[in-house]
Specification:
323 residues; alpha/beta; TIM Barrel; 8-stranded parallel beta sheet; two-stranded antiparallel ribbon; 12 helices; 15% strand
Length: 323
């Protein structure tokens, strides 16, 4: 398994990461154990979770229960800031709350430290300076090694980095963003900002909620239990005629180069300059193995250019129609 550094953190992680949002909710602890075991078997060294995952804390509890001594062998990232009261109220990112959230996560995870602590979503109710000072507190305490963000726009990322530099506070080493062969808006402003500030990208939804696996036939509703059925908001975004057209062209390309659509999707992300680790969840051990193998696949510069042409063709047509 290839390893890459996250930003300038000194932390090296496997190019395939394990997203743990299914733990404590969609799957049992026994299923989670099998998934974690397989992740270690295939060389995955980066686990990503959040305090809200698994019905408010369940994912962290499961990880803490199942990792044991293996905790030392991985880079463990979690997030904070979304509502933990079950009421859907605005999450907290104040300086005081950062310490409270870290203590709660450490207890659930049964660990003494968090490798990367991420702000889950930007919070307009709290000045970013206040949050950064809270992050500085937990880094200085030794309970957090590095800090990062998630779902930040380009200007929010730059603002955070500039304030951190000016005040001598910890800077973001990475950001998480939805990024895949269908959703590529990050390329417009976010990725150029990341390159300028040496911030790594941790893309989530690499298969667009499973849509890029090719298991959703055109015009048919997803089967019960599949992600785009369980999460209808994602289904509404992905299951469109424009995206099915794109899937058909990507499938033709995959057949031409004798690879699966999953290999193309993961290989394309792994070839991106800013990507440190591709975050993919799983509900079965074989999915972990498939994702790891696909992320290790290699795409040539010519194949990358052809994939860009396939995507741009769709958007050129869209722009002509708009005009």
């Amino acid at each position: 398994m290839r390893q890459r550094e996250i930003g300038r953190s000194g932390l090296f992680v496997s190019i395939a990461g394990l997203g743990c949002s299914n733990f404590g909710a969609r799957i049992s602890d026994e299923s989670a154990r099998l998934i974690i075991d397989r992740a270690f078997d295939v060389g995955i060294t980066f686990f990503d979770t959040a305090d809200v995952y698994g019905n408010l804390g369940g994912s962290e509890l499961t990880i803490g229960k199942l990792l044991g001594d293996r905790r030392k062998r991985i880079v463990l990232a979690t997030k904070f800031g979304r509502p933990m009261d079950g009421q859907g109220k605005v999450g907290k990112t104040t300086r005081r709350y950062v310490s409270e959230a870290v203590e709660a996560s450490l207890k659930r995870l049964k660990t003494d430290w968090i490798d990367i602590l991420q702000i889950h979503w930007p919070n307009a109710d709290t000045p970013i300076e206040d949050t950064l000072r809270g992050l500085d507190d937990v880094v200085r305490s030794g309970k957090v090694r590095q800090v990062a963000c998630s779902n930040f726009s380009a200007w929010q990322l730059v603002e955070g980095q500039l304030i951190a530099r000016q005040l001598g506070l910890p800077q973001f080493v990475s950001t998480q963003e939805e990024y895949n062969l269908i959703v590529r808006h990050a390329e417009q402003e976010l990725i150029p900002a990341m390159l300028a500030y040496q911030v790594s990208l941790l893309p989530y939804l690499p298969l667009a909620g499973g849509f890029l696996s090719g298991k959703y036939p055109r015009g048919k509703l997803p089967s019960t239990g599949l992600r785009l059925d369980v999460m209808p908001n994602q289904g509404q975004r992905y299951l469109t005629n424009k995206n099915w057209d794109l899937i058909e062209r990507l499938t033709l390309f995959a057949n031409k180069v004798d690879r699966s659509l999953v290999e193309i999707a993961f290989g394309w992300l792994a070839a991106r300059q800013t990507v440190a680790s591709v975050l993919a969840g799983a509900t079965r051990p074989d999915q972990v193995e498939q994702n790891a193998a696909a992320t290790n696949s290699f795409l040539s510069s010519e194949e990358m250019s052809e994939l860009d042409a396939i995507y741009n063709r769709d958007h050129i047509i869209k722009d002509i129609v708009k005009s």
